[in-house]
Amino acid sequence: MENKNEIPKKKKLKKIILYFFWFIFGIFLLAILTPVFLNLFFSKDIEPIDDSNILSGLSEINLLEEDNAYFDLIKIKDVINLESIPDKGIFINNYLNLSEYDDFDIEKILAENELALEYFNDASFKNSFQDPRYANPSEIDDDSMIALNTFREVTRLSALRSIEFAKKGDKEEAILEAKKIIKVGDLIERSQSHLFVYLVGVYVKEIGFNVLEKLILEYEIDSEVLDKYKNEFLEYNYSDNDTIWRLAYVWDKMKIVDILEGKYDEAFNNDSFFRGFRYLNKPPFKTNYYFKPNKLIKELNERYSLVIDYSSNPCELNNYDSLNFIFYPDNFVAIFLQDNSYLKMAVNPFLPPGILKKKCEREGRYLEIMELFDESLN
What we know:
The structure is a single chain. The chain is mostly helical. The protein has 17 helices and no strands. The protein has helices at about 5-40, 50-55, 70-75, 90-95, 105-110, 115-125, 150-165, 170-190, 195-220, 225-235, 245-260, 265-270, 270-280, 295-310, 330-335, 340-345, 355-375. Helix 7 runs parallel beside helix 9 (about 195-220) and helix 9 (about 195-220) packs parallel to helix 17. The chain starts with 5 loop residues before the first helix and ends with a helix.
């Protein structure tokens, strides 16, 4: 016979189960109705904006191949030979001191890369660098790839050769080799290119200044040699190249257009998260709370405009903490409630504040080395 005390317990358990069911059902209903409500009442996009404030700073660059250092540098990937380098990590991280390692045959490494260094030398005699993919802002080629890492590798080889010149007593050749590195980096840094290409230019240039510092501190370069090339080194301060940010804006805008034209449909349909949002971008929700291209372009324009202003300001005038680079929702609730969240995550704009801060650090580094230059002259 059933215990009378057990009956209230069973009723209580049934109530808990029922409440739990209604709670789950309510959440499910809310999840369905919230986007319906948002789409019905808050889905209107803004009108297209005038973005000439950014686009006017870009132009089509037409360079003859024989005047463009790019075409010398891309030939290096076919001839560079790093097989004689026993430890790539040491080569990358301690290129200034490879002679300290017994297993590095420096003469052999340089001999095997004579042609690669010759192409690098040819590039240093050019006065321009332009990656053809970004020469025409209206026709950016975002699909092709070039061997940017090769640019870094040959730069380290050139640094190695500069130090070898100094060790053998040829101080002027050592300085000239360092100057080549800095000039090539400067050409890349000042070009109209993608942010990743710009960063390669920055890296190349920093290697050149690292080599120059080592030469001055450790190899007692004659003051006559330093004086001879001082004015040339003064030309290579870090640039205020804002075209990288203008092109980044164009790049992100192109991605929005590509999404609208369906070029990413297959990729998104293979992603369960984005696939759920795609269902909302169909009738009756063709105008979509989570998908407002013109509004996103406006937000991108505002952010990139601020970055462009900061890139040309003196470092001490910039408040980098005021830049909001958390551009897309970072939690599920925000994704669900924030308008345009689908498109923001799909575009995922690349706006790292660290690049702007690093620019100021590099300027300080440049000034330190030029002061060292002056001290050696005196």
